[in-house]
């Protein structure tokens, strides 16, 4: 005999189905939200390069985008992604900044962004990590290693946990074709990168 489903039972069945769909959708939406949110207002990226073998020229870039994805809270096997607006190069000397944007230097019209994407994020000590990744600059992509100190804190104003990551690394301008005709005794080949990145726990 064919079982008859009465309207009241049918309605309850549909309600259960719709509830299950709603719960699943909510779970997916929550899991899709990033665990750490980039705080651009309290982050910065700076560089230093030796000039004429006597002193350093320092400058900064603005960070357009940054992401930090983690499984746990200690950042073991985390992943990071960073996009830098190269056109914002600032050495506090307008004429020099204009020169740095030209084709023989950063060529910002053709290569407006510099991008770092981590491939390895390993803990080496208390609050210490070594991060290796692919760095794309001036149309060239090369592996770069950064040493990071990660500090945890709490913002009494926002009532949220945050982390501050201090990153230091060295790249060679010759690897990326920057000022290729400039000898090292005029402008050092090595450029020191220092970043202070702040992320707020979601």
Summed up, what is this model?
This protein has 202 residues and is of the alpha+beta class. It has two domains: 1-33, no CATH class; 34-201, Beta Barrel (Lipocalin). The protein has two helices and nine strands, in the order αββββαβββββ.
The gyration radius over C-alpha positions equals 24 Å
Query: Strand portion, in percent?
Result: over 45%
Helix percentage range: 10-25%
Total DSSP E strands: 9
Helix/sheet category:
alpha+beta
Top-tier CATH class of the largest domain: Mainly Beta
CATH architecture of the largest domain, by name, is Beta Barrel
- Full CATH superfamily name of the largest domain: Lipid/polyisoprenoid-binding, YceI-like
CATH-derived topology of the largest domain: Lipocalin
What value does the average pLDDT take?
88
Gap from first CA to last CA: 55 Å
Number of helices: 2
| Bulk shape | globular
Q: Major sheet: size, sense and barrel closure? A: 8 strands, antiparallel, barrel
Q: How do the helices and strands follow one another from N- to C-terminus?
A: HEEEEHEEEEE
Enumerate the strands of the largest sheet in spatial order, edge to edge or round the barrel.
Answer: 2-3-4-5-6-7-8-9
How many domains? The number is 2
The low-confidence runs, each spanning 5 or more residues with pLDDT under 50, are: 22-32
